[in-house]
Amino acid sequence: MKYLDLxxxxxxxxxxxxxxxxxxxxxxxxxxxxxxxxxxxKWLSNLPNLKHLxxxxxxxxxxxxxxxxxxxLSKLSTLALSLCGLSPPTxxxxxxINASSSLVSVHLDNNFLTxxxxxxxxxxxSSLLFLDLSWNEINGSIPDSFGKMNTLLHLNLxxxxxxxxxxxxxxxxxxxxxxxxxxxxxxxxxAFIHNLSSCARFSTKSLKLSGNRFTGQLPDFSIFPExxxxxx
Length: 232
What we know:
By secondary structure, the protein is mainly beta. Helices cover 9% and strands 21% of the residues. It has four helices and 16 strands. α2 links the parallel β7 (105-107) and β8. The longest helix is centred in the last third of the chain and has 6 residues, at 198-203. 33% of the residues are buried.
């Protein structure tokens, strides 16, 4: 079996570890089974061909080493763990754990993640197109390393506790189409807009910055083509 979708049902009890016997599985979706219980994710280690994993809306709060087993899935391209109650990894536990370098789409919104998740994610920056970390507990400054994630098309960091200015390195994201930084504690002027490379100006389609503490004068949005839709 290569494809298994059991989403949006009323299953309960522990997710059976026998799923790990499906070694040819490429697509697994167990999301929206609210009564599922998860003892551990060790069984994922036996699914080397898995490309799509969706466990959204299943509590993983007790699974403290979730990132360890996800990182072993070398072919994983889509990871959806929205509203799973994920706890943040500690920096010491991440010293030898990398995210899968094949990741293209990552949905980790509505969890308890902090900025400690960033080092794990930046290791997959060579292929990442979609990243949603909204509605978490991420605070502090936005790392400059985001400016090196040149493949990103969509980035959502809304509804966190991010502070300080938007890094000028964001001007290097030549393929970014949508950026959502709404409802954080960001401040200062929108200097990064003046530092946008010509390719970034043409790629950007949607910019959401509402609910922050930005000051100063509005930048010149005429630098964007007519297709740009700004939402401040």
